[in-house]
Automatic annotation (TrEMBL):
Keyword Transmembrane helix set for record: yes
UniProt keyword list: Membrane, Transmembrane, Transmembrane helix
Keyword presence, Transmembrane: yes
Name of the molecule in the record: Cytosine permease
Signal peptide, first to last residue: none
Transmembrane segments: 23-40, 60-81, 101-124, 144-162, 174-195, 215-238, 250-274, 303-324, 336-354, 360-383, 395-415, 421-443
The organism's place on the tree of life at top rank: Bacteria
Length: 464
């Protein structure tokens, strides 16, 4: 093997062995904070379904089954291989990704692209967090107050993410407890009505129900789309773990476990609210946060809104921090305030246009973008004997081709109508993962991978 490494790879240092932590102090905690974010679980009952009862149209059991399947897909197909490579190398996603996309391609994918997509997360976070604050103040969605708060929210998150992430991280250790407590209080107030729930209470049309499979696929598409970037970031998150068991347990608890917990509670809260008769017949409100005033009363409901918004601020800062780190690696000569400032302007544009309010659409697009990355990295890991193969030269063809095709598949719901093609791909984010995985396998076995470059330090560590 020959050595021709760019500085960002050659100078990278693994997380020291004595700095590694068990899963319950690192991986599980980090992912639990992500999956407890209210913007994720509040849209589980709708998941983009057209029915008045959302994914509850065929009953609670079908919807919860969809959440369980989605949770394990997130763990096994999105997180596990990146997490194991992160643990075994102790290195960042920007470095580990060079085996799949090459040392030149790694600058763009997943490095730069990870940074760009963080502003999609920031836009959604700002939009919905500001909405809760605006509603606490008595203003409506889309109002001037809502938009002004969202703009200020995004700007503050970028500033704090760039300058004060260490302080935010300390606070973020405890703030995820807020949505946890709120979910438990809401379920305690509504659990008595779950047994009496019927989709018809939400204005559903029982004569023409959607198929159970279609509803399950909607839940999976929404959940996997939301989680895709966090799955690839498992390289960074699990690099602080010391053993394979830590990686597995961190994912099973923090990813799969907490996803099932928050998703199922969200569904139960909506079902229990209607089953208890707290909402007038025929109304269709699928969002648990919008039902809080009905469940708890106006005063307490508004306080809950404000608390959920406060708890969502650290994730906004972390998104900005991840973007800044990505841009520092890929655009080292550009001041991060400039690159992140441009990203913040784009995020604000998504907010003002209202596109950030379509969380399902945003997350499906993110899934289309990062789903093939997760699939290809998993294939790369398995083909290399469950090890990180090391950096590859230039642009690795197998990685880039598998990503391009996977992205088209994942984004087909948008691209198809634009091209005038009347063909639907079911569950696009998962289809994108599968295409990324299978195509990388085929192309790699056909010899369409660039040469592996020598990384002496990594080889010495492996030998030891």
């Amino acid at each position: 093997m020959e050595t021709n490494l760019p500085d960002y790879v050659a100078s990278s240092k693994p997380v020291p062995k004595d700095a590694r932590m068990p899963w319950f102090k690192s991986t599980a905690q980090t992912y639990a904070g992500i999956m407890l974010w209210f913007v994720f679980w509040q849209d589980i009952p709708s998941s983009g379904a057209s029915s008045a009862a959302g994914v509850l149209a065929n009953g609670l059991g079908v919807a919860i089954l969809g959440v369980i399947i989605a949770a394990f897909i997130c763990h096994f197909a999105c997180y596990l291989a990146p997490g194991l490579m992160g643990m075994k190398t102790g290195r960042s996603l920007a470095v580990v990704g060079t085996s799949t996309y090459g040392v030149k391609g790694g600058f763009l994918m997943p490095g730069f692209f990870m940074g760009v997509l963080q502003f999609g997360w920031l836009a959604v976070n700002s939009y919905f967090s500001a909405l809760l604050v605006a509603q606490f103040l008595g203003s409506d969605q889309g109002s001037t107050i809502h938009m002004v708060i969202a703009i200020i929210w995004a700007i503050l998150a970028v500033v704090v993410g760039l300058k004060g992430i260490a302080y935010v991280a300390k606070v973020a250790t405890y703030l995820p407890l807020i949505p946890l407590v709120i979910l438990l209080v809401l379920i305690a107030k509504t659990i008595g009505g779950v047994g009496s729930f019927e989709p018809s209470q939400m204005g559903a049309v029982p004569e023409a129900p959607a198929s159970s499979l279609s509803l399950i696929l909607l839940i999976i598409a929404y959940t996997v789309g939301f989680f895709a970037t966090a799955g690839a970031a498992g390289v960074d998150i699990a690099s602080s773990n010391g053993t394979c068991k830590d990686v597995h347990m961190g994912g099973l608890v923090g990813v799969a476990g907490v996803t099932i917990f928050t998703g199922a509670l969200s569904l139960l809260i909506v079902a229990g609210t209607y089953g208890s008769g707290l909402v007038e017949g025929g109304q269709s409100i699928l969002n648990p946060t919008q039902l809080m005033e009905t469940i708890m009363g106006t005063g307490t409901g508004k306080v809950f809104m404000l608390l959920l918004a406060v708890a969502a601020f650290p994730p906004a800062c972390f998104s900005s921090f991840i973007a800044a780190e990505s841009f520092k690696n890929t655009l080292p000569k550009v001041n991060p305030f400039v690159s992140c400032g441009i990203g913040a302007v784009c995020a604000i544009g998504l907010v003002l246009s209202g596109k950030a309010g379509d969380a399902v659409g945003v997350f499906v697009f993110i899934g289309a973008s990062f789903g093939p990355i997760c699939g290809a990295m998993t294939a790369d890991y398995l083909l290399s004997g469950k090890q990180w193969p090391g950096p590859r030269s230039g642009f690795n063809p197998a990685g880039w081709i598998s990503w391009a095709v996977g992205f088209v598949v994942g984004a087909w719901g948008t691209l198809g109508p634009m091209l005038g093609v009347d063909f639907t791909i079911p569950c696009p984010p998962v289809a994108a993962i599968i295409v990324g995985f299978v195509l990388y396998m085929i192309l790699a076995k056909a010899g369409l991978t660039s040469r592996v470059l020598s990384m002496p330090e990594a080889e010495a560590e492996a030998a030891a």
